[in-house]
Amino acid sequence: MSEIENAPRRTASDVAAFIRENLALLPVPAFPDIVLYTPHPASGLRRLESAVDEDADPCPPYWAYVWGGGAVLVRHIRANPGLVRERRVVDLGSGSGIVGIAAAKAGAASVLAAEVDRNGLAAIALNAAANGVELASTGDDLIAGDPPDADLVLVGDLFYAPDLAGRVLPFLARCVAAGVEVVVGDPFRAHLPLGALHPIAEYSVADFGDSPHAAGTRSAVFQLHT
């Protein structure tokens, strides 16, 4: 049995304390008015992998990084604040909460950050507070159910794996059928369902893993076909 499997189960307050003590609160390079708890080589982030549901496998800490799909949505919200202003927004697969934070800063009526990784939920709460915005959050697997009571669902980078993509797309189609607008940000991951999407904007943004000196990764914003 691994060290992670033997590790004691952390409570939500334990996770929040770990993040505060071991990650650095830093501006996002592309969006310096947004600060996030950010890992660094001495963070020991792998020690949080045990903090998952009892019946689930350990999750990689995707929530700790800004991914291209989230970054491109933030860019698009900054360029088009009317997309979210005075609207009820769901940030699906919220991760660090950066998209929800950008929506709240741009005047969204409300933002629900949906993230199934409970470590991510702790990070979202800390990041929202650090940015002076209010985000509601849920750890429920929304894509297994009915469309949310919302005006807009923002989807940043949820097409990186075939099984997840196969679950996300039918949920988004149900949202559109119920009158909920769906906007997707993605750096053209392998399982992005381009046939179901209409591109509305394209930007070059930093993606996780890019060199600090890279020009950026081609990424786009899409609407789901109605």
UniProtKB/TrEMBL annotation:
Pfam family, one: PrmA
SUPFAM superfamilies in alphabetical order: S-adenosyl-L-methionine-dependent methyltransferases
GO BP: methylation
GO molecular function, one term: protein-lysine N-methyltransferase activity
Keywords: Methyltransferase, Transferase
Superkingdom of this protein's organism: Bacteria
Official protein name in the record: Methyltransferase
